[in-house]
Amino acid sequence: MSFFKNLFNKEEPFVPTPTQDVPGLDPLVVHAIENLFPDTENQKQAFDFSQKFLQTKKGNTVSLLAMLKMGILEIDNPLLSNGRFWMDAMHDISDMRSAKKWVQSLTKSQDQAE
Questions:
Q1: Angle at 94 between CA 72 and CA 19, to 5 degrees
Q2: Can you give the pTM of this predicted structure?
Q3: Exposed (0-12), middle (13-18) or buried (19+): which is 109, by Cβ within 10 Å?
């Protein structure tokens, strides 16, 4: 079934196009931060958090995007050690495919706002 879906799918794959290059961060993450936080100070805080988060044992691109979606920008936030919070955060962004869809939806909403 997925063979036919892929064969006839006319939708272009989403390729993140961030305006900044942040060492150590996936372009998908940078693209998401740029769309979530238009203010440069908030972006800087989000970039700092992201780099620190990726150094933790729970840190990967998918879980990082889930944390950003939930508005977590402090590495010492007590919610990061709450299992129930993690379950809620990972509900919508559970894998790379859903992460890309979410970032793409941010991009579309930004395009519509302009």
A1: 60
A2: 0.83
A3: exposed
